[in-house]
Amino acid sequence: MPNYSALDEKIYAAVQRIPLGKVASYSQIAALMGNYHLRRYVGNALHKNPSNATTPCHRVVNAKGFCSGSFAFGGSDAQRKKLESEHVSFVNNHVNMQLHAITEDDFEAIRAELESILP
């Protein structure tokens, strides 16, 4: 059984707040943690996500909108299928980031909510 750190829990809390039909990048989640350079750590934490039903890690993509090639819950096409079921559209095999990336307002709302619920 994986051991989850306080940082992992904060990452999961941030991802749980990505609105339906939107995506965030690994870098945006890292920025919410206070360090843009933690993007690889974010990916590793999401890979060991204990419950995609609780933490929709499929809503995290790379900065260009590409899905993970090794999505942890069901293989490489599972992430795209989950996003499409939430009406996220794709252009040239990547998420249409102009339509579906979280906005600055979304980012700030997630940051404010994390500050209110986490130490």
The largest sheet, given as strand count, sense and whether it forms a barrel, is: 2 strands, parallel
| Rg, nearest Å | 13 Å
Distance between the termini: 25 Å
What class would the helix/strand composition place it in?
mainly alpha
Strand content: 5-15%
Approximate shape: globular
Helix and strand sequence: HEHHEHEEHH
Question: How many strand units?
Answer: 4
Average pLDDT rating: 91
Helical percent range? Answer: 40-55%
Which runs of at least 5 residues are low in confidence (pLDDT < 50)? none
Query: How many helices?
Result: 6
Strand line-up of the largest beta sheet: 1-2
Model description:
With 119 residues, this protein is mainly alpha-helical. The chain has six helices and four strands; from the N terminus they run H-E-H-H-E-H-E-E-H-H. It has a two-stranded parallel ribbon. A two-stranded antiparallel sheet has the order 3-4. Strand 3 and strand 4 form a beta hairpin. Helix 2 packs across helix 3. The chain is globular. 31% of the residues are buried.
The gist of it:
This protein is mostly helical and 119 residues long. Helix content is 44%, strand content 7%.
Give the secondary structure arrangement, pairings included.
Elements: H1 6-15, E1 24-25, H2 26-32, H3 39-47, E2 60-61, H4 78-85, E3 90-91, E4 94-95, H5 97-100, H6 104-117
Parallel strand pairs: 1-2
Antiparallel strand pairs: 3-4
Offer a few descriptive terms.
single chain, 119 residues, mainly alpha, two-stranded parallel ribbon, two-stranded antiparallel sheet, 6 helices, 44% helix, globular
